């Protein structure tokens, strides 16, 4: 993306690095709980990783049914474009 916001792939890679998990096969429809097998602590760590990108999201944004693509969409919606 040219506006400074992370693409889905870069967002996924950033979360993988922060959580120290392999998300290489994760797609936009991958659920944080069932598909990616992130436990409640890891999901909260994902929330902190998003906050480190400058976006504050409510705690319930990272429930087990949330998808990677859905979390990325929340990030994009809340992250203002940068010049």
| Amino- and carboxy-terminal Cα gap | 12 Å
- Average per-residue pLDDT, rounded, comes to 92
Which structural class fits the helix and strand makeup?
Answer: mainly alpha
How many helix segments?
3
- Helix-strand topology string: HHH
Give the biggest sheet.
Answer: none
Radius of gyration: 12 Å
Can you walk me through this structure?
This protein is mainly α. The chain is built from 3 helices and no strands. It has helices at residues 8-19, 40-52, 68-78. It is globular. The model has no long low-confidence stretch (mean pLDDT 92).
Write the topology of this structure.
Blueprint: H1 8-19, H2 40-52, H3 68-78
Helix pairs in contact: 1-2
Give a summary of the structure in a few sentences.
The protein is mainly α and 83 residues long. It contains 3 helices and no strands. The mean pLDDT is 92.
Keywords, please?
globular, mainly alpha, 83 residues
């Amino acid at each position: 993306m040219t506006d400074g916001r992370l693409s889905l792939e870069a967002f996924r890679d950033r979360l993988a690095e922060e959580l120290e998990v392999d998300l290489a096969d994760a797609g936009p429809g991958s659920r944080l709980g069932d598909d990616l097998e992130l436990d409640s602590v890891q999901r909260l760590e994902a929330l902190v990783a998003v906050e480190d990108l400058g976006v504050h999201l409510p705690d319930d944004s990272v429930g087990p049914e949330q998808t990677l693509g859905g979390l990325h969409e929340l990030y994009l919606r809340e992250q203002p474009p940068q010049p």
